[in-house]
Structure prediction request, 227 residues.
Amino acid sequence: KQEVTQIPAALSVPEGENLVLNCSFTDSAIYNLQWFRQDPGKGLTSLLLIQSSQREQTSGRLNASLDKSSGRSTLYIAASQPGDSATYLCAVTNRDDKIIFGKGTRLHILP
Amino acid sequence: DTAVSQTPKYLVTQMGNDKSIKCEQNLGHDTMYWYKQDSKKFLKIMFSYNNKELIINETVPNRFSPKSPDKAHLNLHINSLELGDSAVYFCASSQGDSYSGANVLTFGAGSRLTVL
Prediction:
């Protein structure tokens, strides 16, 4: 059974710092992995999607990597800003077509 | 202009009532989903429909019944509401299915259900 774990559960960093969020999954037979952002009281916004054949994806200050064999993904945020404060969720799409989410990392950027 | 819209955004009701949450997407996507986010913020899939056909039906009580009149709509009907049904329910959609390996989920803003 696929399990997705995100560490840490919460993180506070000063503005301007670079940071890394971690995601691990137990079954490497996935189609893809996605990183989402969830703001309080709002829906989820897809940030990056990495297909199983890819190693990384970049969008602006965000870079996501995927190491399928070790069951790990990281989301790197460069030059953090207060507007980056949110909960970041990692989700994998299994071969049985199910999308499994981690519990998220609550990120707080200190002004 | 909203891509995935859910109504209502907030719903407060008594135990035992029957309620529905509606979801519509104007993205032309083939697949729609319902997710439940519990008090610990854990998102779990409930149902998935592809072109009006049920694809995923997780272990949810049969009091929950999804209805897809067309591929742009996926409504969630809940009978005999219980306290444990209180949660935020998210609708989502994606183009194609997972076999294409490139499905990006677009989520609605969520519907917060409170059962008293």
